[in-house]
Each structure stands twice: as structure tokens, then as C-alpha cells.
Fold these 4 entries.
Entry 1:
Amino acid sequence: MIRATILAAALLVSASAAFAEEPIVGNWKTVEGDTAAIAPCADSYCVTLKTGKYAGKQIGRMQGKGASYTGELTDPSENKTYSGSGTVSGNSVKMRGCVLKIFCKSQTWTRL
């Protein structure tokens, strides 16, 4: 009986790890103070503003796993899209958008 319980607990932990979300998934506070939600969508992770002037607008789409993600980010105030990246470190994510991989801007968002 004890052995079966231990085996069942081990399987449960393994299953949880297999279905664990990527570190980038969740709600993030932007530098403007808005909430951005990053969630799986098709084969990517979509970045959608949940609060603020541009609430409901998708502002990015990224692919990757672990701590590194790449894709596109949109500046909602200018409606311009840039090549982008996201790097997760603990409860923060550094979002970076670039033009020609030379002119870049970065922001660090914190997990809510």
C-alpha cells in the first residue's frame, strides 16, 4: 500500500512537471503600469494588454522556451512592429524591440 502511494505521488509530480507552463506565461506589469498577459496561442505566446489605454490589443507574439523567447513586439502608441525578444529572470522579463537589430529599446516588466 505504501509503495503504491509513493508511486502514485511520483507519477503525479512527473505529470505536473510535464504540463508546467513556460516561465514567460502569466501577467506582467509594464513600465507604464499596465497589465500585459502572456499566454499560449497556437505555436507561440501572445502578448496582450489587459489594462490601460490599449487594453485588448495584442502587442506581441513570441516563440521559445525556458528563459529565452524571440518574435515580434508592437509599440501600441505608434502601431509599429519590431523584431523582439523576451528574457525571463525570476519575476521579471526583459522585453526588447529592435529595428535592423541595431536600434533597440528595452523594458523590464515584473510578474504580478
Note: The mean pLDDT is 86.
Entry 2:
Amino acid sequence: MSALFGTYARSPIAFERGEGVRLFTAEGEEYLDFYAGIGVMALGHHHPTLVKALKDGADRVWHVSNIFTIPESERLAERLVEKTFADAVFFTNSGAEAIECAIKTARRHFWAVGEPERVEIICFSGAFHGRTLGTIAAGGNPSYLEGFGTPLPGFHHVQPNDIEAVRAKLSNRTAAIMIEPVQGEGGITVMSEQFLRDLRATCDENGCLLILDEIQCGFGRTGRFFAYEWAGIEPDILCAAKAIGGGFPLGACLARGEVAKAMVPGTHGSTYGGNPLACTIGNAVLDEYEKPGFLDHVRDVASHLHWHLQQMAQKFPDLVVEVRGKGMIAGLKVTPPVRDLVAKVRDHHLLTVAASDNVLRLLPPLIITRDEIDEGFERMTAAFEDYRTNQPA
């Protein structure tokens, strides 16, 4: 019996090494990775730039307290500010911590400007913001809340893509609206660009903040650096993680200066957040993203991926209900139990992951090639045919 908490239904497969979009077991079996650690390994496995950065960083300073100036952290923050709407950044170890920082920042902002009653946040059905007590309350999923006592108050949930439902929930206690431009865990639900523009306008009209959770859909996954760019808007606060560290634990809460200035010394902290080693690797990740043509490549392979998804829907109308996604965060809503199909696809040495609403989720590394996508869908097609053939009559 494992000495680990039983919080995961783990596959018995263990990987010894990775290379690009492939993982290998100790026995030498090769798997195509269309999962990427739930969107974390955006640059694939064993990326030479990141390996070098890790080794070089390990030869210098791994960790110091945030009471000292950390040049690597300062540089990464400056680069993120230059590329986005933000004026300031708080680094974390994970996405959930970035969301916690965003919630605190929004509430603290209104306290600082003399509106302490503004503590409520409007969120959305199907959302996933993390596993802490605060973030499960923000997500609102009953199965994640069960057994942990009374949820943290102050969160209201409405259906996505329904601006009238949002407006109906607004009050003089509303601090912010928080949304994922593309819900990952919730079933690859894409928010329309008009809906995001309407949310921005609604926040402006009502004096509240717009918080975007781009932990899974940001950092190039939709073909833009952040997904909000497609709608031509800017948030007040944004949360990033997963791909930002290329596999090393790193997250960030980005904010406009007017909002961030309420977070003065003593209001928030993180022992490891933004330490030298993490930010060395974060800067190396950003170096790769800033190479000419990187996002052009993502958009190109994304169009190829979605062509294949449409082909799957046509070939297997009995198994596929709907194609979903934007860019390289994509999925198939299926008729069989999705975990059965994830297992069957894995039997054919292709790694995918389930999402809510019975969706087979695909999050390949952004460095994937068209040929590797072709190879992956050959395996997926074989798996779907295998599944169909072996179902009871």
C-alpha cells in the first residue's frame, strides 16, 4: 500500500524520462503526451533551455527570503509587466495560491479606498480555481466542497456566457467578477469574446474589478500570450501558473498598479514564491516564448489539431457529441464514460485527461509538430475503434 494520501486514482504507469512530446517508462515503452501534466509542460519534456537554466541556477543561489532583493524575480516581473496590462506582480508556487492572492488583493483594494463592504465575487458554474478552502468556494463545485464544512462566504455563481445573469447578481457589495476565459477542468467551455467585453464594460459601469484566471488557458495556449487578448480587453487582475514555469512550480498574480498598491508590507506573503531558482527558470521559459514565430507556430498546429478533432466527430458520431476548445486547449464531449475512453486511449500509448461534462481533454505541449499531431490522432482513432468494437451488442 502506498504511503501517500489516497487523493488520486493513480495509474500504475510510471515514467522514467521524457523528450519533447514523449514520455518513456523504465521498461522503454513510449507514450505520446497530449496531457502535458495538465498544461504545465508547454515546452515539452527535457527542454534544453530549461535544463541548462536549472543547472546554472542550482550552481548559484537556490533560495533566499523575500526580505532580500531577488534579481531573477525583479527581471521576470518586469518582463511580464512589459508584455501585459499589469503594473505589478506577486509570485507564488501554484495557481491556487495565485487565485488566493487575487481574492485578497481585490478585497484589500476596496478596503483601502474606503469601501470595505465590497467583499463579494461573482464566479461561474463549471469553474475550477484550485483546491484550497478559498478556491473551492470560488469554484463552487459541490463535490469539491463536500465534507469540508461551511464554504467561505462571499462567492456567487451564475451560468457562463449569460451577461444578464451576471448583472442580476451585482450589488453594492460586489468587489469583482472572476472568470476563466476558457474553462479547462469544467469541460473546455469557451467564453465568447463578446461576453468578455460585456464583463469588462459591466465592471467599469459598476466600479468593480475583473479577475481573469488564465492558469490553464494562458501563456500561449490559445495562440495569444494571454487569452484575454482575443477579446481586445484588459483585466484588473490576472492569475497565471502551470506553463509559466515549464514544469517547475511557479505561479503569478498580475495586477494594475492602482489595485496592487493596497498590498503593502504585511498584507501577504509566500516563503518560496518568486525565489531565485523558480524565477531563473521562469525567465528561461519566457525566453523561448519570445523567440520569433513561437505563437505563430502555436496557432498553426492548433488549426491542425482542431481539423483532426472535427474528423473524429465525423468518424465516430456514436461516440463524439461535440468538439470544444480554443487553440491548444481542446476536447471532445463524448457519450461513453470519459474515464473509460481516457484509459482506452492510454492503452494505445496516447496520454489525455478527463474534464467535467464528460469531456476528453487535450493539452499537448505547444512545441508539438503537425506530424506528431497526426501520429497522436492515429493512436486516438485506433483507440476509439477498439472501444467501439469491444462494446457489448
Note: The first helix runs from residue 36 to 39.
Entry 3:
Amino acid sequence: MRSLPHLLLLALALCLASCFDDEDYSTSATDFLVSDADTVRFDTVISGEPTSTATFRLFNPAKKYVRLAEAYLEGGASSPFHVNIDGAVLGDGTAQAVEVAGRDSLSVFLMANLPDLDQDEPQFVRDRLVLVTEGGARTVIVLEASGQSVVKMRAERISTDTRLDAARPYQVVDSLVVDAGATLTLPAGTRLWMHPGTTLVVHGTLVAEGTAEHPVTLRGDRLGNMFNAQPYDRIPAQWGGVVFASESTGNTLQHTDIHSATFGLRVLPGSDTATERLRLENSVVHNVSDLCLEAEGSRIFVGNTQITNGGAGCVSLRGGDATFVHCTIGRFYAFAGGYGSALTFTNADAEGRALPLVRADFLNTIVTGYSTDEVMAERAYADEEAVFNFRFDHCLLDTDPVDDETVAAACLWDNTKAAVWREDNFTPAFDYATLTFTFGLAAESQAVGTADPSVTAAYYPLDRLGAPRPAAAPDMGCYQHAASE
């Protein structure tokens, strides 16, 4: 049993500790919590679906603890925003008090779930998060988002000729299939937002009618950021890709932007090379974890198109009949696992059997990447039944120089002997931190002014974005260099 003096000493110690704790907390109205974001903005999000989580921090610059006595959303329980402050959830728009140590910080987690107002245009929403310290200092963070209504497609099969409406995006949740004998038409401005793993499989015909001002877009449906300011839209493998089945013919894609998929366009073997399977013009296939474009035993035409950053390579041809005019083919894949080449072609099928390469023509085209050789030609069969015909004419090629004019006429070699080479052909410089890649030509590039003018006049007097090419000395690739640069 403790004696009375011991109890008095204990009480005195507790009192002193309590007084000391109180003195450690600021009650000054000038000790604010400082946010590293005055405004937290979600870009366009899908209405009716929760967003990914955004994070920002609150700092206490004072030496003493600051008690956050009150935190609330001005929109209250009806706010579409949901906030968690260092583990404390704002139930009904308000939260319990939390404490921030001197010269310390805490994390705030934010998400949104905007109501679906069934409108074609994005609907803007704003709220304010108000933080009040025990001393009465107020910190206000503005929260903003725009909700986009979408047309949901679940396990959809197109069995008759169908023309979509470009007024609002289509969210494709399960694979979209175009049956044999049916044509799916995507008018200018159509947006297909594809769920992870979702594939567009075409047994019939796909027609994309994009324009330079209103391209057709196929991308993933994750609209937020993966972390910090890095959008999911710049991360590969966000959805499957587009498959043209063996019986599919007459597919035409104009001004179509296909990006951040597992693979881009896959043309499966057809019965012969007499019928054109795919015509891809003025388009972009970019940033996929596998191949951007692969075709086997098929006739395809690709013009004025950017095919870039495929993890397993950009273009792969197995036999068939292929023509590329004014294309930019570049492999600068930014993620681990990139192992392919910008361009590969062979006269064997995927099983290693002979498959004639009737034609592989590349005119006014750039083929480059970050390795020392980005053009891989494999003649697997030398017999006449598996012909191996290819030709480069007025091309910039990242490979060893070739002296044979019958297969490489008026070509330039993208190597260290040039003024600029590989990624320095393009401007602005690639930003690997933000995964931003722009393939316009730098003034010093060998591709500037060295294309064949007769090919340009016959096929593409305008570049992919509609800029005129000079009649006398056009540029190679799909983008015309702007002299003002």
C-alpha cells in the first residue's frame, strides 16, 4: 500500500505532465496547417464509378503540436468526394479531431464518385474541404472533378451492320466482337474506353472514320493517375488490343489512335494475299507491352502512320504482302521487358513453316529505336515457294548500311556518324519521367528534306496532322518538320 506522500508526489507529477502537454499544443490562430495542393483536381472521370485515390499532404510548420479540431466538406453528406485524413474518415462529410506534431505532416486521401447525370458533355463538380485548428486557423482545399456519362457495352456482339454514335464514350467492359458478315463503323470522334483485358475481335469488318480534328480513339478505361501525376493512360497493358480474324477483310482505319494496350493490331493469317485485309492511314499505334502491329500471310497497307514503343517490337511481318509509306516506326519502350526490334520480317509462319513474303515495301519511312540494329530480316526459306521480297526506298534506317540498291535505294543510316541519331531525331526530347513521347522531327535529323517527292505527291502531300509537305524536298516519316523550329 502506497503512503500519502507517495500519492501526493504522483499527483503532482501527473499535474506537471498535463501542464507540459498543454504547453506543447498551439492554440494560436496564426499556426495554420499548410497543404501541398490548394486545388485537387480529377480530370474527366466515368460518372457513377469510384475514381482512383488521390493523395496530398498537410504540413505543420510550427514547433508545437497543432490539433485539427474540425474537418468537413462544405457539401456535407451529399458531396461526391470522400476524404480520409490520416486514417480518420469524414463520415457524412465531417471527421474527428486529429493531431499533427510540430514540423511534421499527415496524409490526406481523396476519391470521388460522381453521379451519372446522363449528359453527353462532362459535368463539372466542385466542393471545398475545410480544416480548422483548435486555434481557429482555417485551411481550405478546393476539390474538382468532371463526370462523363458513358455507354456501357458488356459482352456485346455486332451481328448486323452497326454505326456507333460519337456523342459520348463507350465503355467496353467485356470483349467486343464483330461477327462475320457485319461491319462496325466508328464515326469521327468515337471513343472506345476498354476495360482491362478487353479485346476487340473482328470477324467481319471494322471501319474507323476519324479525322485529324476528331480522331477515333481506343484506350483503357482507367482515367486517373497510377501514382503522383502519372496517368494510367501512359502505362501499357491497360486493355487487350484489336484482333482481325482470318475471315476478316476490308478493314480501314483512318485517323485512329490506339494506345496503352497489351498489343495493338493483330492480323491473323488469311486465305490469300489478293484481298486487302487492313488499310491503316494517318493513325497512331503507341505504347503497348507486346507488338504494335503484327500480320501473318496477309495483305496490308500502312500510310502516314506512327507505330511506336512496342515492348516486343513495333512491326512484325510473317509472309504476306505489306506496303508502308511515310511511316514513323520507332522503338523507345520505357518499361522493363522490352526485347524486340522496331521492324522484323520473315518468310516463315509462327510455326516455322514456309510462308512467302510476296512484298514488304517501305517508302519514305523511318525505322529506328534505342538499340544499334532495329531492322531484323530473317530469310528462313530459300526455295521459290517461300519468296522473300523486300525493298526500302528513301528510308532512314537504324541498321548496318546495305550496299545493294535493289533492296535499299537512296536510304540513310541512323547511326552515330550522323549529326543526330535515334531518339535525337525527334523533338521535343522524350520525357521518360512523365512517359511523354513526341515524334516530330528535329531540324538536324537526316530525315528532313530527304524523302522521295514523287512518292509524297502520289500518296500523302499532307502529313499525318494535315500539315502540307513541300513539293521539292519533303521529310521522311509521318510528320513534316516545321521550319520555324
Note: The helical segments are 4-24, 453-459.
Entry 4:
Amino acid sequence: MTYEIPQKLQYEEKIIFGLTFRQLVYVPFFIIPALMIYLKSHLPFLMRIALSALLAAIGILFMFFNLLGYLKNLVSWMRFREARMTDQKMKEFLGLKKVEKQVLYVERK
């Protein structure tokens, strides 16, 4: 029995603690400062907990919920949201040759 293997198969190697390299890159930027604030800071106790929990939560969002991808999509949406049908960017995006009397002429590919 044969079957096809999908070409767009994405696999990332688990390095340590079941985390990929991309996930481990975020640890020094969020989790370590959160621990430093909690353990070494001279702030009041509730302030330390709030700041470290906020940093840890942002780090977890980046690590496990692909927050970077969502932010990239948001930025591209913000740039493209004011596009009109007659704009050059929209014509390139849709592959339009011309727009005439509410008819769209599309380039063949």
C-alpha cells in the first residue's frame, strides 16, 4: 500500500525540554528577565509578581502561540487596509490588467 507524503510538511527538531530552537530563543528575552525581576528586584512584592507575570505571559505567547506571526499579519493588514480597487498595489495583488465598467480583467498565468 503506497501513499503520498505531503510536500509542505513542517518539522522542527526538539532540542531541550521539548522546545524547538525558535521557542528557546525567546527564553533569554522574556523568562530570564521575569525571574530576575521576581528574585533580585527591591520592588514591593505585588509589583514584582505583576511585572514578572506580565513578562512571562508575553514570553509564553511568543513561544507557544506564535505571537510574532500574529503581529506580522497585523502590521501587513494595517499597511494594506486603505487599498482601493484602482490602486497600483491592489492591481498587482489581484493580477488585474484593467477595470472597466465594473468588470475586472485578470492576467492569465
Note: The chain has five helices and four strands.
